[in-house]
Amino acid sequence: MSTVAERLKAAAPLFQKYDSPISIATRMAQFVVESQAGVSDLFKKSNNGFGIKASAPWTGDKVLHNSNEVGGARDSYFRKYPTLEASIADNASFYTSTDYRSNTAYKKAIDAKTYEGEANALAGIYAGDTLYGQKLIKAVKDYNLKQYDDKKESVQMTFPKPPMTDRRKHALGYPGHGVYARRSKSAIKKIVWHYTAVKRSLNRKIWDHEGYWKNTHKWDIGGYHYYIDSDGKIYWNYDLEIATYGASAANPYTMHISVEANSASDYSQAQIKAREDLTLWLLTNDLKHLTGQSVLGHKEVPGNSTSCPGYSVAQLQQFRNDLDSKLKANTTVSSDFDLPTYKQPVKPFKELKVGDLATVRKPHDAWYIPQTKKGRKPSKDFTGRSFKITKVIDCEVGYSKRAYLLDGVISYILEQDVVEARSHWDSESKDQQEQLDYVYIDGVKRAIGAVIE
Fold this sequence. Notes:
Layout: H1 4-17, H2 24-35, H3 41-46, E1 62-69, E2 72-79, H4 84-94, H5 99-105, H6 107-111, H7 115-122, H8 132-142, H9 146-149, E3 153-156, E4 165-166, E5 190-195, H10 206-217, E6 226-228, E7 234-236, E8 254-259, H11 269-283, E9 295-297, H12 313-329, E10 331-334, E11 336-338, E12 357-359, E13 367-369, E14 374-376, E15 386-397, E16 400-406, E17 411-414, H13 430-437, E18 438-441, E19 444-447
Parallel strand pairs: 4-7, 5-8, 5-9, 6-8
Antiparallel strand pairs: 1-2, 3-10, 6-7, 11-14, 12-15, 13-14, 15-16, 16-17, 18-19
Helix pairs in contact: 1-2, 1-4, 2-8, 7-8
């Protein structure tokens, strides 16, 4: 039989494949503690490597198993998976699978900055065992699980947010959420494409459709999260956490994009481009747990009998393949690396605020990752590009005490690499320029430019 270390090494790529607010090291430690890395009795009959019970919103297969609980052993239903990978994927998204889990039960673990913090926060919550955190920490150390957090990984760069009109406060039903409870974004499993079945030349608007739904169908909320009008303009109607009325029984796990058209030949190129740009942005941001294959035409959603969105299944599959090709092309192999500790600059930087523009200056050789306090190599040269600042955080890295979150690329940049942060300087001497732009790491002179994707 293979050893625990061998089984962990074999499973590591699967843990690295699925994003989670909980670190890879901690999740792999759970795999050890809960199933001895895939050899427990529960695992043998269910592929459940993490002891996750068949609690809501789980609707999949389940298995009855005698478990050791606080207060004694008892029979309970546990989730059953077809493969180990399915179990790892479910564990990765489990912590945000409901509002309660993401905002209450596991919030401290999600917000923790270290695997030790995650482990201690899970004790008594994920498992009733008060020593659970200590067991996880021991597993991380015994099997050197931090090595898998630090491995090179494929990093998918985000697609820019397309222009859109935010009408969420004016959409039908605001501020309610219809008949469905609010959900976590990770609960969304499919992106559904629609057309309105109204000819594009009629130039209808989303509020016209909402009026029809309200008056004719007595709906208390709309059908589409995003709507693309006859000119290719995008309207943002609902937060993804709200399940709209786009696909009947599938609504709880779907989100919806609709285009103003009534046949495959009625779409304009502007509409097709807007739909693709919007879908790619979603797939690399809020819905990055999905792929191009997660996109369905309305006609393909189980339980829905319709010709919407006007394409054949073969055409829809080609769209899915094209989306995946673009996602793959936008992926770069990267690894996080340590940034130098803080050193006071020769001159203070001008402090910028949310809404200001930040222009990337040269050199720009790393984005800043606040969760790990590390840098990450950018996928391309951003020198000279300007982005609106959406968030400001404190840090002590290089010569910077602030980092700015950039809109569009969803990236943090250190203040030392922002043109506007130096705009109040009359001049920079060569020595000052050298001091701010370079640092010696392991005896090698290297630029420490801006930071993040």
